[in-house]
Every structure is written in C-alpha cells, then in structure tokens.
Design a protein that fits this description.
The structure is a single chain. With 275 residues, the chain is of the alpha/beta class. The chain has two domains: 32-119 and 221-264, D-Maltodextrin-Binding Protein, domain 2; 120-217, 3-Layer(aba) Sandwich (D-Maltodextrin-Binding Protein, domain 2). Helices cover 39% and strands 22% of the residues. The protein has helices at residues 4-28, 58-70, 83-91, 105-108, 158-161, 176-181, 192-201, 233-250, 252-261, 264-271; strands at residues 37-42, 49-51, 54-56, 75-80, 97-101, 111-112, 119-128, 148-151, 167-170, 188-191, 208-210, 216-225. Strands 1, 4, 5, 6, 7, 10, 11 and 12 form an eight-stranded mixed β-sheet that branches. Strand 8, helix 5 (158-161) and strand 9 form a beta-alpha-beta unit.
Length: 275
Amino acid sequence: MKTPTARKQSFLELGICLCAAVCLILLSWKSPSARTLVIEGLEEAPLKWVDHEDPMGIDIDIMTEVLRTMGIRDYVFRFVDNGSRLLHNARNGQSDIVLTLSMNDERAEFLLYPNEAHLLLDWRFAIRAEDKEKIRFEEFSDLARVRIGAAADYSYTSAFWNSGLDIQTVARSDLLIPMLLQNRFDAVPVNYLNTIYDSLQNRYRNKIAFLYPPLRRAPYYNVFSKASDYPDKEAFLSRYDEIIREMREDGRLLRIFERYLGPDGYDWWQSQYSQ
C-alpha cells in the first residue's frame, strides 16, 4: 500500500506526463489560421516582379504593409507565367490572394473583391515634351490634326477607335514610345504607370509628357479566392479595406509610389483621387 507521500509523487508524475502530452499535441497541430497565406501574381514592373529571388514592386510593398499591420507573418508571394494559370489557381483554391485584378462579372463568380481599390490604373496619351504647350486633350476633336499611333491588339476604348482620328496601328505596344521619339507619331496611348517607370529606368523621362485627363481609367483590386480555405476571409477583407484607407490618409501609399516613381509618384498619387 502506497504511503501518502508516494501517492502524491504518483499524481505529480501523472500530471507532468499529461502536460507533456498536451504540449506535444499542441506543437504537432497546426491551426488553419497558422498556415501560410499564398499570394500570387504576374510579373510586371513596377507593380510586382522578382529581383534576385526577392519579390518587389508597388503591389508587393502595399500587400506587405497590409499584412504587417494585421500582424500576419506567415505568407509567401508566388509568380506564375500567364493569366490563365493565375485565374485557374484562384478558381481551384490553389492560391488565396491574387494581386491587382480589375473587376468583371466572370471573375466575381470565383473571387471575393474588397471594397477598396488600391490602385487606379490609367491609359494616357504620351507626347514629346517639346509639344506639351501645343497639344491639348479634353475631347477627341482636340487631336484632329495629330498623328496618333496605337497597338493593333489593344482595345483602349471603343470611343477611341470610333473617333475618326488619324490612327496608325503597330504590331506591339512597346514600339509606340520609340516611334513617338523618332517623330513618326505625335501622340500614343500608353499605360501611364508602366511608361513612367520605364522612362525613369531608361533615362528618357525628360523627353515625354502626358495629356490629362486619362483616355481610360480602371480600378484594380487585391482579391481573395472563394475556393481558398484560409480562415475568416470576409473579416480579412474588412480589415484590409480599413488599412488601405488608413494608408491613403497617412501617407504610406504615397511613400510607396515615390519609392518607385520618384517625383512622379506624388503626381500619380494625387491623380488617384481626382475625378
């Protein structure tokens, strides 16, 4: 028969064993909220790309700041090689978040959109800097005597193609700026953000100017896959909206834009909210 001291020792040992077992279970079990958040996108500077295996870009910095503010540390950025694969992965829950997509009814069937668009992307007419006092654009008739180049496979807007302007098409959009600078065109519609960044990288920013208002402007969103099993997606998007609004107001978005666009970052930030 065990003495009281022995029984006490036995209970103590049992308690230690139970605590050890519980700790082992907790360490081996990974809760749904602890799993890695998978964020996918297409490489396109200055929005998102890989540099020496490190993701970088405007989109990357915005999402990283959002996750830092939320206290989420377990995430990964992945890049895929085409848009079809990007949407396939989101449709099937192989990714959780897709970076920078426009909204349409087809995508809304399998994607959850936040209320806040983190970017408004513009297509504007680029002209030679020396012509910025000569060429104005408020309506298409202002460009009636201007030689305009455009990429044949770009939709731009139906109003643009039906404007009756002198539009000459080229096979690829990357030919437009070189042909503008070679004086073969007087105005070309381009993705404003991409062109600003490219002009800074390739040292021709002082040679071009842009006409305002934009030919086209569209909101872009960071979206959640409906098929994703990441927990509390709706709560995530609600908090995401709050943080994007905070970043807009407190200057964090502006600092990210200036990081990649230099002085043009401020002008672009202002244009995001002017109508």
